[in-house]
Write a structure and sequence with these properties.
Structural class: mainly alpha
Number of domains: 2
Shape: globular
Number of helices: 17
Distance between the termini: 49 Å
Low-confidence stretches: 404-410
Strand content: under 5%
Number of strands: 0
Mean pLDDT: 87
Radius of gyration: 21 Å
Length: about 400
């Protein structure tokens, strides 16, 4: 092979790896997600008489899910979404057993009504595939890392419907540095595979589109109110989550946090069924409450959803918080719009979503990329206001557990 051919092969290898791996990851992620949804529908199928799940069935089904999670925890400890993303940096040190258990835990979490998104399961399944493939074709750690990172980016780009978000999230910290270019390419490839297969085979189920009421006219200056409400919701989630994790760490029995959290979540879900699942497919409940003028119900749902997500995450129900936080912001924004007649409901919901994510998820750049691409056009001002104000207030007024750890280790 000539010198020019070798140079060309070396130059084309990274983008080729990103495109092929990203597309494969997007395809595997969609198939896994469809399997999760099918199992979820099976678990929560209407009774023989056509009736939906009542409080007792909800409680017992979630408890059964918790029992399965306890059994899986005896095999191996599972990983969170953040841990899965960090481990993509060191693929050859990953434990196949831990990845497999994480995938099973995440699938059970989604199927049995956990108030979390499907990210952990999709990332774990793709990570398992990446580890196997890397064992056959990766010649060194760098190539194995490229395959692993491209797989993670393909999942995020497809599930969130946002390749830029995939580039911003994967890697150390949140940015769009030039070093993230291959993650962006893999995110595009994963997005195209995920979206194309969903539309052509599964009737567009599983796509990240969020339906809001039609945007209308309203007083723009009033948008600061839902933004501040969203900031409060995001801060409440973050601090409750930190407190719940600290409390769980103090429990002497390793199974105690999962058992206690599951029982509390089961009781909450039996009382307020709308807190179950990720919230992505439950947005209709918010729009119905908005149309009925049920501001009180919306406030209860928003607060209960925060508690549900915190309980699930602290109890080891593996998944992501972005879709639940979007749901929380939508409910709080809709409730705020009902209390302020001069406020456009769609704009209020978008502004509160953005602020809730900016403070609660603490990835404002990725949050903006996700919301801009999954919401209707014409909501740029509420989104930018929510992200901007939420980020500034978060940096100025709210300290972070992660920041404290970094300060201590600096």
């Amino acid at each position: 092979m000539s010198t020019l051919s070798k140079a060309l092969a070396i130059a084309l290898k990274p983008p080729a790896t990103a495109v092929i791996t990203g597309a494969a990851a997007g395809t595997i992620a969609l198939l896994t997600y469809q399997g999760m949804l099918a199992l979820q529908h099976l678990v929560w199928a209407p009774a023989a008489d056509g009736s939906l799940a009542g409080p007792l069935r909800i409680f017992l089904t979630i408890v059964l899910g918790g029992v399965l999670l306890l059994l899986l925890a005896r095999i191996e400890a599972s990983e969170s979404v953040d841990q899965l993303l960090r481990d993509a940096e060191h693929p050859r040190s990953r434990s196949r057993r831990k990845i497999l258990v994480t995938a099973l835990v995440a699938i059970v979490s989604v199927a049995f009504g956990g108030a979390i998104g499907p990210e952990a399961g999709l990332l774990a399944v793709v990570a398992q595939c990446a580890v196997i493939v890397s064992g056959f074709i990766a010649r060194d750690e760098a190539q194995a890392r490229a395959i692993s990172q491209a797989g993670a980016a393909g999942v995020i780009g497809g599930l969130y419907g946002s390749p830029p978000a995939a580039a911003a999230i994967t890697g150390d910290g949140e940015s769009l540095a030039p070093s993230r270019l291959m993650s962006f390419v893999a995110g595009i490839s994963g997005f195209l595979a995920f979206t194309g297969l969903s539309r052509s085979v599964f009737g567009s189920t599983g796509l990240a589109a969020i339906e809001l009421p039609e945007p209308g006219s309203g007083s723009s200056w009033l948008l600061i109110v839902p933004v501040l409400v969203g900031v409060g919701m995001g801060a409440a989630f973050r601090w409750l989550h930190h407190g719940a994790e600290a409390l769980a760490a103090k429990m002497s029995r390793p199974w105690a946090p999962m058992a206690a959290g599951t029982l509390l979540f089961a009781g909450l879900a039996a009382a307020v069924p709308l807190v179950m699942f990720s919230g992505h497919h439950e947005m209709a409940g918010i729009t119905d409450a908005l149309a009925g003028g049920e501001a009180g119900t919306l406030w209860i749902v928003a607060g209960s959803k925060i508690l549900a997500v915190v309980l699930c995450l602290a109890a080891g129900w593996r998944g992501g918080e972005i879709f639940p936080l979007v749901f929380v912001g939508a409910a709080a924004g809709a409730a705020t719009a009902l209390m302020l007649p001069g406020l456009d409901p769609a704009s209020a919901m978008a502004a509160a979503m953005a602020a809730t994510l900016a403070v609660g998820w603490r990835r404002p750049l990725a949050a903006l990329f996700v919301l801009v691409l999954v919401l209707e056009s014409g909501l740029a001002l509420p989104l930018l206001l929510g992200i901007g104000v939420g980020t500034v207030i978060d940096k100025v007024f709210f300290s972070s557990p992660e920041d404290s750890v970094k300060a201590e280790t600096a």
